[in-house]
Specification:
Helix content is about 20%, strand content about 40%. By secondary structure, the protein is of the alpha+beta class. Strand 9 (about 135-140) and strand 10 form a beta hairpin. The longest helix has about 30 residues, at about 1-30. It is globular, with a radius of gyration of 22 Å. The chain starts with a helix and ends with a strand.
């Protein structure tokens, strides 16, 4: 009886392992192929940073945009790169770049901002009027140091400082 128990336990463990493998494979495939949206090339020379990305409708209400921070070794710059998925594939664009050294006290982070009215920081020579953002936008913050919002006004990319 005891010998029969071990094979049944082994079979259950093997089945559970195969189930987990199938579930993991399906999850990876689903993440890599979001409705056939795979294979969009990012800008040459830029590599992904191990930070969270955001996904939303940033260019317009119908766009499917994925935004991530990437690093360019040759230029020693960090960039905010947006990949826009289209029915035929998609395209990528570098929205903003800046200097950042690993270990800096205020690392960059992205967040998805809701449409609405925002009050920018007042700097000499810049407008302090409330800005209306019609679509989702990109919040780019540097720890406790400063925050910006990158958003599209029609087809034009805008960049406003929110805090110093």
């Amino acid at each position: 009886m005891r010998h029969l128990h071990l094979p049944h336990l082994s079979i259950r463990i093997a089945a559970a392992g195969l189930f987990m493998l199938a579930a993991t494979t399906a999850a990876v495939a689903a993440a890599a192929d979001t409705q056939g949206q795979v294979g969009v090339q990012t800008p040459a020379g830029w590599r992904m940073m191990p930070l969270l990305s955001i996904r939303g409708h940033i260019q317009n209400a119908d766009s499917d945009d994925n935004v991530q921070l990437m690093y360019n070794d040759d230029q020693q710059l960090v960039g905010v790169v947006m990949v826009t998925f289209t029915p035929g594939g998609g395209y990528s664009s570098l929205l903003k770049s800046f200097r950042y050294n690993e270990g800096d006290a205020n690392p960059p982070a992205l967040s998805l901002m809701a449409p609405g009215d925002y009050q920018p920081a007042c700097h000499p020579g810049s407008s302090c009027e409330t800005v209306h953002i019609a679509n989702q936008a990109i919040g780019l913050c540097f720890g406790e140091a400063s925050c910006r919002i990158l958003y599209y006004d029609g087809k034009e990319l805008r960049d406003i400082a929110m805090t110093d």
